[in-house]
Amino acid sequence: MNYRHAFHAGNSADVVKHCLMIALVRALQLKPGALTLIDTHAGCGLYDLAGDAAQRTGEAAQGVQRAFADPSPLLDDYRAAVRAVNAGPEPRLYPGSPRILSQLLRPQDGLILNEKHPEDAAALRAAMRGTPAAVHTRDAHELWLAMLPTRTPRGVVVVDPPYEQPDERARITATLAAAQRKWAHGVTMIWYPLKDQATHARWKAQLARVGIPKFLVVDHWLYDAEQPGQYNGAGLFIINPPHAFTQPLPTLLAALRMALAPEGHRGTLAAEWLAAP
Ligand SMILES: C[S@@+](CC[C@H](N)C(=O)[O-])C[C@H]1O[C@@H](n2cnc3c(N)ncnc32)[C@H](O)[C@@H]1O
Hints:
By secondary structure, the protein is an alpha/beta fold. The protein has a single domain, classed as Vaccinia Virus protein VP39 (Rossmann fold), CATH 3.40.50.150. About 40% of the residues lie in helices and about 20% in strands. It is built from eleven helices and ten strands. The chain has an eight-stranded mixed β-sheet with strand order 5-4-1-6-7-9-8-10, sandwiched between helices. Helix 1 runs parallel beside helix 5 and helix 8 packs parallel to helix 9. The termini are far apart. S-adenosylmethionine binds next to helix 1.
């Protein structure tokens, strides 16, 4: 386990992931019934953007800092979530998915976090002190299945692996298929990096064969043409998204694409059904 999210916190992928995560949870919270929120790869919970790791890559400059410079009110909820962990107006600290999810909790909701790396798990426990979150240090795939079906009738599983292992995509496909058998109506959000069109198309074809209905794909290609051999963007699979999330989604994606487009590129950020509802 070499991946450390501290090097990447607040980058463009985090902005899209965290904006859509907020929109998804808020859409589900339009109904009063309790939600169980599960974050299988939680990371540290809170990141210092002025720290050594973040400064070494400078990735936040293309992500959260652009989101803060952007005037669109559609990014207000996201900016408020970042401001909530900062004393001043500038984003010096960055909230990971656990801190953002904990901000969204209503009294009836529960939050289950999981992080296997011992140092990051210790940081996570410290970052979540004083919140009602339960912190686990298990293997993410094992925890994902063990927690299903959730204790409350409705819930969201956020799956955000580092993709260090060559079989990560195949493992996700297998765990998602097993999760679907235990919890067919559950909402799941899976993050992935986009390296090249061919790898992504192959994975989507494998997932389509699993036959999960109501399967949304949100791909963010940063550049106008694929940049060979390098990071080209990121995306999210969202299973069972509610209508209150999908209906306004195109306008949110348009705002995010504009806010995050690299110099000289438009890029694309769009949602399509892999399997229609
Ligand atoms: C991309 S980061 C998570 C970022 C976080 N979700 C956020 O948005 O703020 C992925 C995390 O998964 C952890 N991880 C990697 N493999 C894991 C596994 N098999 N089980 C649990 N955690 C794992 C890594 O240590 C890393 O902290």
